[in-house]
Design goal:
- This protein is α+β, with helices and mostly antiparallel strands.
- Strands 1, 2, 8, 9, 10, 11, 19 and 20 form an eight-stranded mixed beta sheet that branches.
- The longest helix is centred in the last third of the chain and has 28 residues, at about 330-360.
- The two termini are about 35 Å apart.
- The structure holds flavin-adenine dinucleotide.
Length: about 475
C-alpha cells in the first residue's frame, strides 16, 4: 500500500490548490477524485484580491490573470425599476492586497490552470476515477478505501493526514461529524451561462457589471464574466415546474428581455439549491476538511470558492509544521476556529443579500435608506494572534507594489519577522526558530512606522501574528512564538 504525507479527497479547485501548496512545502501528496474530468456545470466566476494574493504565494498569479479579467464596475443591487439599492464598487486600481479587488473568470479555465501545474509536479500523485467509500485512522496514520468507477478496482491509500476537499456532499465531513450551523437560507436558482457575439447591438448594450435585480416577483442576477461569456441566475418560484424551467424554449423565453438566438448560444444551464451552512467540526484527529465540504454559501457575493482558497493558505503551513514535528496536532483547532468565524461573516452577508434579492423592502425598512448605499466584503480579524492588545494582530498585512515588484515576493510563504533595523541577537534567535528576518524598507517601513511599531511578525498566509513597539516587546514576541508553536 502506498504511503503519503497528505491524502486529499477531491480534485476540485480547493483540493487542487491545496495539493500545490503542500507539494511546494516538500510534502508527498495523493489526490483522489471520483471524476476524471473537471466539473462541467456553471459555478464560480468571481474571486477577490486576497485570493489573487494566495495564487501569488505559489507563483500562479500570472497564469491566473491570463484567464481572468479585472472587475472595474462592481456589483449593483437594483429594484424592479432599476434604481440602485446598494453597490459594491469595482475599480481597476490596485488595492491594499497588491491586486485589483475583483476578478472574473470561468471556473473550468481556473481548474485547468491548477491541474496543469499538478501534472508537472512530482510530489503529487493523482488517482482519478476512484470514489472514496470509507475513511479510517489510527493514532499514527489515516487510510482511505476507494472504488474504481469503471473497473470496480479497489484503491487503498495511507497517509499521515487526510484532508477532505470533497465538496457539498462530503464523505470526509460526514466521517468527522454531521452537525452544522445553519444560516437559514435555502433557495433554488436556474443558472445559465451564455456565449455571446459582441458584434450585435443587443450584446453591446448589456452592462459591464453585475446586476442583482431584487424583486418580490422574480429576482434575477446578470453577470458579465468576459467579453465572450455572460451569466443569468433566475430564482425558481414555488409555482414553477422545475423540469420545464430547464428546457431550452423556456430559457429563451426568460432571456428574450435582453438577448436572442441570433446573438447568443446557451452554453450550459443547471438548477442549484443555494445553501448556507457550516460544519461545526472540521477536524477529527488526523482528518480535516476544507472548502465546500466545510462550508456552503449562496453565491450572491461570489465568495464560496474564495473561502476555500483561504482555508488552503491558512491550513498548509500548519500541516507542514505538524508533519515536520515542529507543531503538535492541536494548532489545527486554531485553523477550525479562525476559519469558521471568518467564513461565517461572509455567509451571513451573502444570506442577507439573498434575502434582499427576494424582498427589496428589507433595505427600505432598515436604516439604510440612502439610495445606492456602498458596501464591501467583511474583513474579519483573526483570533489566532500573539499580542491581542495590538490593533494590528489578526489583520492582513498589506502588500505594496514597488518598482514593479510586489512585496510578498520578498516575504515568501513562511513566517517573517520584519524589523525597522537589524538587531543581531534578535535576528539570530528568529533564525533558530526558522523565522525569516527582513529589515523593512520603502512602503513597508513607512507602514510599520505609521503605527509606531519597530517590528511585525507575519504568518505565511500574511496575517499579522504580533508586533512590538520596543526591544523588550520584541523579545517577548519571539518567546511567545515558541509557546505558540507548542500549544
Ligand atoms: C451557481 C454558482 C455560482 C458560484 N459562484 C461563485 C463565485 O463567483 N465565486 C466563488 O468564490 N464561489 C462561487 N461558487 C462556489 C464555488 O463554485 C465552490 O465553492 C467551489 O467549487 C468549491 O470547491 P471545492 O474544491 O471545495 O469543491 P468541488 O469543486 O465541489 O470539488 C469537490 C470534488 O470532490 C470530488 N468528490 C466528492 N466526493 C468524492 C468521493 N467520495 N470520492 C472522491 N471524490 C469525491 C468531486 O468529484 C469534486 O471534484 C458558486 C457556486 C455555484 C453553484
Amino acid at each position: 500500500m502506498q504511503k503519503f504525507d497528505c491524502v486529499i479527497v477531491g480534485f476540485g479547485p480547493v483540493g487542487a490548490l491545496l495539493s500545490l501548496f503542500l507539494s511546494r512545502l516538500q510534502l508527498k501528496v495523493a489526490i483522489i477524485d471520483k471524476n476524471v474530468d473537471i466539473y462541467p456545470l456553471p459555478r464560480a466566476i468571481h474571486f477577490d484580491q486576497e485570493v489573487m494574493r494566495i495564487f501569488q504565494m505559489i507563483g500562479l498569479n500570472e497564469k491566473v490573470s491570463e484567464i481572468s479579467r479585472v472587475g472595474t464596475r462592481g456589483m449593483h443591487f437594483v429594484d424592479d425599476n432599476y434604481n440602485t439599492l446598494m453597490e459594491r464598487e469595482g475599480s481597476p486600481e490596485i488595492g491594499d492586497q497588491g491586486w485589483p479587488k475583483s476578478w472574473y473568470f470561468h471556473q473550468p479555465d481556473l481548474e485547468k490552470v491548477l491541474r496543469k501545474e499538478v501534472k508537472k509536479n512530482k510530489n503529487i500523485t493523482p488517482f482519478l476515477g476512484y470514489q472514496v467509500i470509507s475513511v479510517d485512522q489510527s493514532s499514527e496514520t489515516v487510510s482511505i478505501k476507494g472504488k474504481g468507477k469503471k473497473s470496480q478496482e479497489v484503491l487503498r491509500l495511507i497517509g499521515s493526514i487526510l484532508i477532505g476537499c470533497d465538496g457539498a456532499n462530503s464523505i470526509v465531513a460526514n466521517y468527522i461529524s454531521n452537525e452544522h450551523i445553519n444560516y437559514g437560507f435555502e433557495e433554488k436558482y436556474l443558472v445559465i451561462d451564455v456565449k455571446v457575439d459582441n458584434r450585435f447591438k443587443k450584446i453591446k448594450k448589456l452592462p459591464d457589471y453585475t446586476v442583482q435585480k431584487c424583486s418580490s416577483k422574480r429576482p434575477v442576477t446578470r453577470c458579465y464574466i468576459s467579453k465572450k461569456r455572460r451569466r443569468w441566475e433566475i430564482k425558481i418560484l414555488s409555482t414553477d415546474v422545475e423540469n420545464e424551467m430547464k428546457k431550452e424554449k423556456q430559457i429563451w423565453r426568460f432571456l428574450s428581455e435582453w438577448i436572442d438566438k441570433k446573438c447568443a448560444v446557451i452554453e450550459r444551464a443547471e438548477i442549484y439549491t443555494f445553501k448556507s451552512k457550516i460544519s461545526k467540526k472540521w477536524i477529527k484527529d488526523r482528518v480535516i476538511i476544507a472548502g465546500d465540504s466545510a462550508h456552503l454559501s449562496p453565491p450572491f457575493l461570489g465568495q464560496g470558492m474564495c473561502a476555500g482558497m483561504r482555508d488552503v493558505s491558512s491550513l498548509s503551513w500548519r500541516l507542514k509544521s505538524i508533519l515536520s514535528g515542529k507543531f503538535r496536532l492541536s494548532p489545527l483547532l486554531a485553523y477550525q476556529n479562525e476559519r469558521l468565524s471568518h467564513v461565517s461573516e461572509f455567509i451571513q452577508l451573502a444570506v442577507d443579500c439573498g434575502k434582499i434579492m427576494s424582498d427589496p423592502d428589507i433595505i427600505l425598512k432598515s436604516n439604510k435608506k440612502d439610495k445606492g448605499e456602498l458596501f464591501d466584503f467583511p474583513r474579519p480579524k483573526l483570533a489566532t494572534q500573539l499580542n491581542s492588545e495590538c490593533q494590528l494582530s489578526g489583520n492582513l498585512f498589506p502588500q505594496f507594489l514597488e518598482k514593479g515588484v510586489r512585496t510578498d515576493d520578498k516575504l515568501g510563504y513562511r513566517f517573517v519577522l520584519i524589523c525597522l533595523k537589524k538587531i543581531e541577537p534578535i535576528f539570530n534567535e528568529a533564525k533558530n526558530k526558522s523565522i525569516h528576518t527582513i529589515v523593512a524598507t520603502g512602503q513597508i517601513k513607512d507602514w510599520i512606522s505609521g503605527f509606531n511599531k519597530i517590528a511585525l511578525l507575519v504568518r505565511p498566509d500574511k496575517y499579522i501574528l504580533g508586533s512590538a513597539i520596543n526591544n523588550k516587546e520584541l523579545s517577548r514576541l519571539l518567546k511567545d512564538f515558541s509557546h505558540f508553536e507548542s500549544n
